[in-house]
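Researcher: I'm preparing a figure for a lab meeting and need a structural model of a single chain. I don't have an experimental structure, so a prediction will have to do for now. The sequence is pasted below. Please return the structure as C-alpha cells so I can convert it later.
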Amino acid sequence: MMTATLEEGTPRGLLEKHIEPFIEHLRVAGYAERTRRKKRTVANAFALWTKQKQIAVEDLNESHVAAFVARSPRRRKAHVKFELSAIRLLYQYLRVEAGLVRPPPQDEVSSAAAIVQRYEDHLRNDRGLAENSVRVYVPFIRDFLAGLAAATSCLSTEVLNPPIIRQHLLDRSIGRSSEHTRLLATSLRSFLRFLFLCGDTPQDLSASVPTVRRHGQVAMPPFLPPEEVERVLAATDRESPVGRRDHAILLLLARLGLRAGEIVSLDLGDIRWRSGEVVVCGKGRMVDHLPLLADVGQALALYLRQDRGESASRRVFIRMWAPRVGLAGPAAVGHIVRRALARAGIDHPGRSAAHLFRHGLATKMIRHGASMAEISEVLRHRSQTTTAIYAQVSFEALRAVALPWPATGGGR
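Model: Understood. Here is the structure written out cell by cell.
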C-alpha cells in the first residue's frame, strides 16, 4: 500500500520541493524517462521517511542514507542496490548541485584525512601533477599516516624523524618490486617536502628517504608495431556511436602519442579547427600545440557531429550512457584500448594498455631515422633522459645488419 501511495502522489515532506529539480537534473544528465520514474519513486519514499524522522535537509548525511536503505532487511538485494544508488545520487545533488547539505563539522574529519586532503590539493593546485600521478602518490601517504598513528599512538607530524621514515620504507618494501619501492620513496619525499613548506615540520626530512636504485638496464617498454596499430584501428566498428568515439580516441593515441589522462581532460575548446591544431594540457601544467592530422580531425568531427550529443560537460569524450559526463579517468581509456586489442586478436597482459600506442609511435619514428631530440619533442618529454630508453630500439635494429665478429686468423 505504501509503494502505491508513493507512486501516485508526492509526499508532503521536507524534501518535496527538491525532488522535481533533482529529476530535471537527471534528465539533463541523460537518464532515460523510465529510469527517472523509478528514481522519483525512491526519492519520494526517502522524502516521506525524512519527514517521519524529522530530519531537516541541511542535516542529512551518509548515515541517514544507510539507515533508509536498511529500514527493511527482507527486501531483494537488487532492489536495495537500486535504492542505494538513487539516494546517493539525490544526496550528491543536494550537497554539490543545490548546496543544501552542510559539510561535516571539522572535528568529524580525522586529522589524517585532513592532512591527506591538504596534500592532495597541493599536488593538484601547486605542483600541477596529472590526475594519474595524484592517484599514485596519495594511497602511499594515506598508508604512511596510518602506520605513523599505529606506531606512535598518535598522529602528529612533530614526532616524525629519519628512523621512523626509513623503517616505514623498509617494512613496506618486503616482498615488493623495486618499482613499487621506488614510487613509495618518491611519494614520501614529496610529502615530507610538503610538510616542511607548510610549516608542519621544523626541517625538511625528505633527504632522509633512501634512494631506490634501478638494477641493471631499464627494460624497453612494450609497444605495438605499426602493422598491429593499423590492425586495431581497422577492427574498430565505425558503424556504431561507441565505435566512432573509440576510433577517435585510438587515433589520438596512435597518431599524436597522447597519454590517457590527456585524452580524458581534452576540452571542446582545445580543438582549434581553423588553425588545425590540438591544445594538450600535459604533465606539470605544460601546454602544447599539436597538429590536427587529417584522419584524426575527420574522426573527431564525425564523432562530435553524430554521436556526442548534448551534455553540460565541456569534455570532448563523454560517456555513452547516463550520466552523460566526461570519462571517469585514464582507466576508462585503458578499458577502451583493451577492448580494441581484444577485437583485433592482440593479447596484451600488461596494465598500461594506452601507452602501447605512445611507445609504438616512438619506436616507429626511431626506425625511420628520427633523432632522440625529435622523439622527445613529439612525445613532449621534459627531459631527454626519459626518451633515452628508446635507444634500445636502435641497438636491436643493428643486430640484423651487423657483420659477425671475425675469428682468429680471419676465419668466421
